[in-house]
Amino acid sequence: MAASPMAPTDHPRVLDGRAAVVTGASRGIGRAIAEELADCGALLCVTARDPHGVREAVAALRARGAEAVGVPGSVADPAHLWEVTERAMAEFGRVDIVVNNAATNQPYGPLMDADPDAWRTAFTVNVEAPLRLVQCAWRAWMSEHGGAVVNVCTEGAGHVGPNVGAYGTSKAALLHLTAQLAGEMGPLVRVNSVSPGLVRTEMARFVWERAEESVAAGLPAGRIGEPEDVARAVRWLVSDEASWITGAELLVDGGTRVRAASAGGASNDAVHQQLRHHLPGS
Ligand SMILES: NC(=O)c1ccc[n+]([C@@H]2O[C@H](COP(=O)([O-])OP(=O)(O)OC[C@H]3O[C@@H](n4cnc5c(N)ncnc54)[C@H](OP(=O)(O)O)[C@@H]3O)[C@@H](O)[C@H]2O)c1
Predict the structure, then answer these.
(1) Which NCBIfam families does the protein's record reference (predicted)?
(2) How far is CA 98 from each of CA 18, 63, 152, rounded to the nearest angstrom?
(3) Which of 122, 126, 128, 147 has its CA 20 to 30 A from that of 103?
(4) Is 29 near ligand 1, meaning CB less than 6 Å away?
């Protein structure tokens, strides 16, 4: 039987009064993280490019009883990252938690065909932006008061796959950045990453929509991930329960890395078949 996607959570108010910035929080994993942190008492500042999506996410957070503000913009724009930090400081007077979740899986395709400018964009969004935002939070609050950072990486950064060279390379760099920052920012600030496997979101729709059953059958957990699976892991990592954990990569992947030994006996072919033959958004 597949592990339940909806493990019960009583939402202890372990983050009461702490302020969190979550990037890319209008849908998918970022939205679930923002809601999970809010349900545990955090004050939320959320971002995404589409202003409508940001407004909608803020309204949903407030409907859950949370204090929340939103700042539309791209994490690729350094001015936006300062604006986000300043807004959180103006509204809440603190920035205890940063979750670098926004990312791009473009450019898609073989690296020999990659446009180096598009390749650079993947690094701007997936690596440079997380560093810049953490610098902002450090200068505004964390260097004196401490805090916790979580970078959303990917299980896929641990190996190679068809057409995802820019994404995988930039996420591998984000993993290294996580470890380096953890070393530099302690003891005041803890920095960790979560690495999801295949999760039911828009970004990965082109994979799971066609192959959910075969991917799930090959996973020890017996199902693909839901955004809430990742959100609960992030909530734990930023809470005091994880106070002796920094520089860690937490796989939230339903057993993807160990699936070769599972009863389903699958390789990673079910995912790679989709990556090979279909494009994001197709
Ligand atoms: N889904 C998976 O299977 C999976 C697996 C491994 C890792 N991940 C990672 O999980 C994270 C979240 O992905 P997801 O699957 O939840 O994706 P998603 O459903 O496509 O959501 C992405 C979110 O980020 C925002 N966003 C995208 N580009 C942005 C930018 N340049 N600046 C600011 N916001 C931006 C989007 O809103 P706008 O479009 O309005 O900007 C949206 O709110 C990413 O880091 C991804 O790499 C996902």
Answers:
(1) PRK07231.1
(2) 11, 22, 11
(3) 147
(4) yes
- Atom index in ligand 1 nearest the CA of residue 198 equals 3
Q: Ligand 1, from 99, 201, 251: best to mutate by most atoms within 8 Å of Cβ?
A: 201
- How far is residue 89's CA from residue 94's CA, in Å, rounded to a whole number? 5
Tally of CB atoms within 10 A around 253: 26
Looking up residue 51, the CATH number of its domain turns out to be 3.40.50.720
Residues 174-202: pLDDT tens digits? 999 999 999 999 999 999 999 999 999 99
As a whole number of angstroms, the distance between CA 222 and CA 225 comes to 10
User: For residue 47, what are its two tokens?
Assistant: 């971002």
- For residue 215, being part of any structural domain is answered with no
pLDDT tens track for 131-151: 999 999 999 999 999 999 999
| Size of the chain in residues | 282
